[in-house]
# Entry
Amino acid sequence: MNTTALTRSSSHVKNLIMGLMIRSSSIHAAGCYTTSPIPKGVKVVEYTGPRITKKQADAYFQNSKITYLFGIGDGTKVINGHGMAMYINHSCDPNCETEELRGRVWVMSIREIAPGEELTYDYNLYDGDEDEARCHCGASNCRKTMYSVEEVERRKKAAKRQARKAANKLVSARRK
# Structure
């Protein structure tokens, strides 16, 4: 599939034709790869699909192991991913990032990307119940989870609070 990318760094719009393909990935099942060079700072592909509420998505995908949901706006709506962008895998050392522009979600290159390279971005997950959302990116700076740094810290603090609460209950029970 050829897509047209737009540079965001120039005052005039420059169209770039790039090829994207889906194939096996060492990160997770299938991944999205480029067949042509991608310069830094361009819109690579749009994250498309039906927009539904987070509540609808939680109910619909309750028992699903894999989803392609992308939170938008204030987090009350998500895109149920369809198309090329849904195959872009997470990496703790990504070559792309996502940006919401006028209600649309774009995957943007944050460095030059060579032909044959897998496209990745940091998912920065922020919710997910008990799921560990393990990361398999293999980057030297891998944090072993797809959760954001902030979410990892929030979860650590919550676990400490739970442990203190359980210890206090145990001490109270022994005193009785």
